[in-house]
Design a protein that fits this description.
Layout lengths: L2 E4 L2 E4 L4 H17 L15 E4 L2 E4 L2 E4 L1 H8 L7 H12 L8 H4 L1 H5 L10 H15 L13 E7 L3 E8 L2 E9 L9 H15 L1 H4 L3 E6 L15 H8 L5 E6 L6 H8 L3 H4 L9 H10 L1 H12 L6 E4 L2 E4 L2 E2 L8 H9 L32 H18 L10 H9 L10 H6 L17 H35 L10 E5 L20 E11 L3 E4 L10 E3 L3 E3 L25 E10 L2 E8 L8 E4 H7 L22
Parallel strand pairs: 6-9, 9-10
Antiparallel strand pairs: 1-2, 3-4, 4-5, 6-7, 7-8, 11-12, 12-13, 14-15, 14-18, 15-16, 16-17, 19-20, 20-21
Helix pairs in contact: 7-9, 12-13, 15-16, 15-18
GO biological process, one term: DNA integration
Protein name: Transposable element protein
InterPro entries: Chromo-like_dom_sf, Chromo/chromo_shadow_dom, Chromo_domain, DNA/RNA_pol_sf, Integrase_cat-core, Retrovirus_Pol_polyprotein, Rev_trsase/Diguanyl_cyclase, RNaseH-like_sf
């Protein structure tokens, strides 16, 4: 076939002049036989270059009509959706000439959605880049169906692309920006998706003839032997039916064209705004207006400054910190901006343990502070999370990165530096306030707004946390010691009293028991007490749990505890088993204690109960509930 037609236009192409004359003769004879005629002034014969449907066709290949390029360059900035559609329609007609057309035009195509027409910096950049790309559009080779077609395709995190080639010359380009769920596909699935789209895009060139596919995804070479594991594979493999091709592996660094088409950054991410700290400007003004600071600046510039002074960017520094006079008006502003947002409290909770060396030490009962370093870190993190999540505690996982940031950018008493500075060798970056509207990127704006809300909540919560922390810290920092033979009261939290007496009302349970005599001092901060006979707890306690007896009145709580159950025993006895359950793979029973009301029944671990009361036959205590059957206790 040497000739085709489009409505009222017909054209023919020939390899040689002689062949061209023969083709014209045949075409004119066919027209005459069908009573069709042509105007001589509208005919052109023997042309080496021809304009056809907005393209310039020549022996070199196919190029964009220069008149169309001029039209696009002179196109005014669209002010309506209709005008934007016209511009995209014109440029889209030539998209096969433009590498990465889909990603370049994405900000403009997003504006076609209902209610989304808003001209932004990204849209302006996309508009100008499309114009520039049209002026640099390459000359594409004309497809030769007697030669082998080669398809090179590639995928990246944000898009897919490919190029159709013959003898190392591009015939057409293809690119597609990923959206929605396709952004989260695996690398293999994205590479396979690029292959599917490329083959379907160039179906008229590829169907019915053998061609070669080149990809930098090595596993795609075995596409036909692989086991189908995803629905995407099953859907896409069907689309290859009817095609005859082989897949070759090509390293990514050699697959330049397809790689570039798929990896070009989306303009929405590339065009970001960076907040500029305007709070430094008043400081620069103070440096210029203050006579004392000007004298220091002159010495720095002349190299006569004594000490670690430095003057740069209009600001005076001392030991790499901004230097201000004590009466500077900027001090309150800087303190609020840089200090309040992540302050840990006026007092540090504890000095850190030794930084080098490890020793093996036992801790006393009910005193986790012995492992001080870990406990301090845990308590600090808990404080941060409590401040962040007081309004919604279920979201505590979301705020862990912020807690880590606060901890890593706070100066530690033991090292006199922040963890960030120790790891990276430089101070942490300043956390500046965000002024809404200073960025045009919606994602960045939302992130910074969220951060500002977090900091606002944190400042409010820390005011309360600081006071609470100071109160507890000051209350516990009381140095005290006792002598052997002294009588002291023992403080036990309600939940610890369960090992001493079986459940009473926890809120009304006594806090101190005793007094008990001190038998021995254990280490520097623990004492061994003479507890009542039958007590089932370790007799060594930390000094923080003890209070010295003063005076002659000892009537506090001399037994552990002094309860009357009708028998001369420290612990009540089981009277009946009211129920049974399994919790965390442990058998538990509901025990009705002798001398107590059934309302005071408690759930107890069955094995521990049997060890505690070996002389009591628990099987006789089982009650039948309703019409059910009670099984024997194992």
């Amino acid at each position: 076939m040497f000739s085709d037609s489009n409505l009222d236009r017909a054209q023919s192409a020939s390899s040689t002049w002689e062949q061209h004359l023969e083709h014209i003769k045949i075409a004119l004879s066919i027209l005459g036989a069908n009573k069709l005629f042509v105007k001589e002034e509208k005919c052109a014969f023997g042309q080496e270059e021809l304009k056809y449907l907005g393209h310039v066709i020549s022996s070199k290949g196919v190029a964009v009509d220069p008149e169309k390029i001029d039209t696009m360059l002179e196109w005014p900035k669209p002010t309506t959706v209709k005008a934007l559609r016209g511009f995209l329609g014109l440029t889209g007609y030539y998209r096969k000439f433009i590498q990465d057309y889909g990603k370049i035009a994405r900000p403009l195509t997003e504006m076609l959605k209902k209610g989304s027409f808003k001209w932004s910096l990204q849209a302006e950049e996309s508009f100008e880049r499309l114009k520039e790309a049209m002026t640099k559009a390459p000359v594409l080779a004309l497809p030769d169906f007697n030669k082998l077609f080669i398809v090179e395709c590639d995928a990246s995190g944000s898009g897919i692309g490919g190029v159709l080639m013959q003898e190392k010359r591009p015939v057409a380009f293809f690119s597609h920006a990923l959206q929605g769920k396709t952004l989260f596909l695996s690398t293999y699935e994205k590479e396979m998706m690029a292959l599917v789209f490329a083959v379907q895009k160039w179906r008229p060139y590829l169907l019915g003839r053998k061609f070669v596919v080149r990809t930098d995804q090595r596993s795609l070479r075995h596409l036909w032997e692989q086991k189908i594991t995803t629905t995407a594979q099953e859907k896409w493999l069907v689309k290859f039916m009817g095609y005859d091709f082989t897949i070759e592996y090509k390293k990514g660094k050699e697959n330049l064209v397809a790689d570039a088409l798929s990896r070009r950054n989306a303009s929405g991410v590339a065009a970001i705004s960076t907040p500029v700290p305007n709070w430094l400007d008043p400081i620069k003004d103070e440096v210029q207006s203050n006579q004392t600071m000007q004298e220091l600046v002159d010495k720095c510039e002349q190299g006569e400054a004594v000490g670690p002074w430095e003057f740069k960017d209009g600001i005076l520094y001392f030991k790499n910190k901004i230097y201000l006079m004590s009466y500077s008006s900027r001090l309150p502003v800087i303190v609020e901006e840089m200090h309040s947002s992540t302050h840990e409290g006026y007092h540090k909770t504890l000095q850190r343990a030794r930084l080098q060396g490890t020793s093996f030490n036992f801790s006393s009962s009910y005193h986790p502070q012995t492992d001080g370093q870990i406990e301090v870190v845990n308590r600090t993190v808990e404080m941060y999370l409590r401040c962040f999540t007081s309004h919604n505690q279920k979201e505590w996982v979301r705020w862990i990165p912020w807690a880590a940031y606060c901890y890593n950018t706070s100066i530690h008493a033991s090292t006199k530096k922040t963890p960030y500075e120790i790891v990276y060798g430089k101070p942490p970056p300043n956390l500046l306030s965000y002024v809404p509207g200073t960025t045009q990127v919606e994602a960045v704006d939302q992130e910074l707004r969220s951060r500002e809300q977090v900091l606002k909540d944190l400042r409010e919560h820390l005011l309360v946390a600081q006071e609470r922390m100071k109160k507890f810290y000051d209350a516990k920092r009381i140095d005290k010691s006792f002598e052997v033979g002294d009588f002291v009261y023992l403080k036990l939290q309600p939940y610890r009293q369960m090992s001493l007496s079986l459940r009473r009302n926890l809120k009304l349970s006594p806090r101190f028991f005793g007094p008990y005599e001190i038998l021995q001092r254990v280490g520097q901060v623990a004492y061994k007490l003479k507890l009542p006979e039958g007590s089932r707890i370790h007799p060594i306690f930390h000094v923080s749990l003890l209070k010295k007896k003063v005076g002659t009145n000892v009537a506090v709580q001399d037994s552990l505890p002094a309860l009357s159950y009708g028998e001369d025993t420290l612990f009540p006895m089981p009277q009946a088993i009211l129920g049974q359950r399994k919790r965390k793979n442990q058998e538990e029973v509901l025990v009705h204690w002798k001398g107590l009301s059934p309302a005071d029944a408690t759930w107890e671990n069955l094995k521990e109960l049997q060890l505690r009361f070996p002389d009591v036959n628990l099987e006789d205590k089982v009650f039948s509930m309703g019409e059910g059957m009670s099984r024997a206790l194992s």
